[in-house]
Amino acid sequence: MKLHIAFEWFLNPDHLPFLVGLHKGYFENYGIELDLIVPDEHYDGLDELIAGNIEFATNEPLHLIEQFNEQFLSLGTYFETKGGVILKKETYDKVKNGEKITITTPVSNDVTNTIGYEIIRRYFEKDGIEVAKENVHFEPNGFEHIKYMKEGADGGWLYFYNFEGIEAQHEGLDLLYLDAQTSGFANFSALDLFVNKDFYHANKNVCQNFDKAVKESIVFMDENPEEAMKIYYKHTGEEKSPLMDDILKATLTCFDANYSSEYEKSLPILEFFREINITSLEDEKFKTAFLR
Q1: In a domain, 292, yes or no
Q2: pLDDT score of 209
């Protein structure tokens, strides 16, 4: 059966299970011909999923809340890392002195900017420092947080540690990492595997086999990390480098072969977003996006 999965951004190591599943034949073993779709815009995959034009999509769990739709069904969080906001060390004093700071981000809108600001606010609140919302400017840019920070930005929002954290180490940058542990919020630096709900209920066996193939791929990656890295380089044609090697190694530790569709695991994210008034989504409605 021909199935389609749209990614949240460009093809990258976070999508390794799907590349491994293709190259090792795990999807083929279940009679699945999988088409990988790289979207033009971040929300394109979710829009296509809602419309029923594709069957599967990956995206951060926050969008299950921000873009909630009755057609969303999360099969679970297959990837999770540390993430949030990164700041240059000297930015701490700028904030402390009440100066305006610029945060580079690939997505700038009222919702994402509110979340980014709240992470910054909570981080500094621990030290008794108040951060005025008007003093935090979110500058829409590409994905290259470290590049834009080297060019002058004070920080980056929507970073994943397995990328920017590793890149910062290679660049010798000493940064402040504002993540769930240091800033006190429910971690959503992760990727869920979404399926169109109508398609799932009409094709449960197919979807369950797809799920098995992804999990078998993750188990293979856990047991054969070097081969998984070779598959990534072969599929993408990307030139092998010490930086990408380290990003791949860091990313390989972020996958969960036992992910499952559980409402209670994602509930803290919903509660965090309700706490900062960016959603009024109710528990009972949110539950419909999970199998249990």
Answers
A1: no
A2: 98
* 5, 35, 73 from 48: Cα distances, Å: 10, 14, 14
- Boundary of a domain, candidates 151, 183, 215: 183
Residue 115 lies in a domain: yes
Q: In this predicted model, what pLDDT tens digit does every residue of 229-241 receive, in sequence order?
A: 999 999 999 999 9
Return the CATH number at 32: 3.40.190.10
Instruction: Kindly indicate the confidence band of residue 258, based on its pLDDT and cuts at 50, 70 and 90.
Output: very high
Statement to judge: residues 94 and 175 lie in one domain? yes
Nearest to 6 by CA among 18, 24, 20: 18
d(CA 199, CA 55): 7
| Tokens encoding 189 | 């630096």
Domain around 258:
2-80+189-287
Out of 147, 166, 183, a domain closes at 183
d(CA 271, CA 276): 9
Residues 61 and 120 reside in one and the same domain = no
Bridge partners of 85, per DSSP, are 157, 178
CA 239/CA 31 separation, integer angstroms: 32
Q: Give yes or no: residues 62 and 144 share one domain.
A: no
Q: pLDDT-based confidence at 242, cuts 50/70/90?
A: very high
